[in-house]
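[job 4471] stage=fold_predict status=RUNNING
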Amino acid sequence: MTTTLRLPLVVTAATLMVAANLVGAVTAHADTPSPSVPPGTEASASAPVQVDPNDPDLKLPEGATLAAPKVLDIKSVVEDQGGEERREDTNSDVTFALQAEVLFSKDSAKLSAASKSRIDAIAAEIKKQNATTVRVFGFTDNLGSSAHGDVLSKQRADAVQAVLDADLNDPNITFEVRGYGEQYPIADNSTEAGRKKNRRVEVTFPRTES
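[job 4471] inference complete, writing structure tokens
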């Protein structure tokens, strides 16, 4: 009977040892620290695949040619400290944007005395670029009716165009004059600062290719 009683005890002890080893193995696996370097960058990682520059698949098919080189359009924007005047230059065009407040009284299309010098400077740049096509577009904010904004913006564009035409005095120049009202805002109409930027007249013309 002694042997019979000892056998379960031995088996139980062995079972506890195996269970303890299993728990320890699981715990050791869970506590394994994460890699200190990103996967694929460790020393044992394989080197990148080398590219053969003479591979025929990398060459243009016979008779094929590369597209002509093209200069990407780059825009340069210069704005005065008060934001009253902004100049944008791209590879193809020059655009001057004048806030309505520096040209007109509130809700008016009559040019102020101080506005002429600003328009004269734009005319001088048009002459410098030898432009023969000039676009003069008027814009308003979203206050008031849309119909009123359309009319006012066109009247203001007409007023600026009239001064430019007198300054340039060139029958070869074609003007395109439009009033867009509240369309095409460049700032947030929910703030007065944004609305002030949106009330503007823009003058655009091609720049001389160099």
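[job 4471] summary: The first strand starts at residue 76 and ends at 79.
[job 4471] exit 0
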